[in-house]
Amino acid sequence: QFWDVRTQQATGTISGEASDIVELALSARGSLLTTGHKDGAVRLWDAQTRRLLHRFGSQFGSPVISLAFSPTEPLLAASDQDGNIVLYNTTNMEVLSPPLKAHTWRVMALAFSPDGRTLASAGEGGGLKLWNVATRQVALTLKGHAGSVCGIAFSGDGNLLASCGADATVRLWYAATFEQADGAARSEEGQ
Predict the structure, then answer these.
(1) What's the maximum distance between 2 C-alpha atoms anywhere in the chain?
(2) pLDDT of residue 101
(3) Are 2 and 10 in contact (CB under 8 A)?
(4) 90 vs 11, 62, 75, 96, 132, CA distance in Å?
């Protein structure tokens, strides 16, 4: 269902292709809507006309858990119950492969940094990972929650990352700069 926030009135729905939606996300400009489905499929919609733009076939063997658009480029991330993340290019409708094996279990939440260079993923096993979007490699792993990390969000300036967990805590992390995170990943590889 679409809503006009100013009038608080429903303005319509999307077509029958929208059955079994389990997750959705709007792009930063509000021009694109993506839906994740029980069968693992991801669909891309024009948010203004409510027209289906593309059906990405199911990349997952389980339902989509989380979706996030990059604020700076035509990149969409989706995650599943088995710890995978798939990246999509929403300009040429390409599935970027291979999928990222992010966590042992379910990827509960995804968030891009404001500059679009880092993707954060939160796992059911308690860990947070920061990914270098360009290389698709883990740049930094953060640990602190006992149990699942349920939600994550970057501050508008990208200096803080907030996370909430099943341990009933909210944690604020000083977000490493892209260069610091990338350097930390290289030094870990060298050890």
Answers:
(1) 58
(2) 82
(3) yes
(4) 25, 22, 6, 10, 19
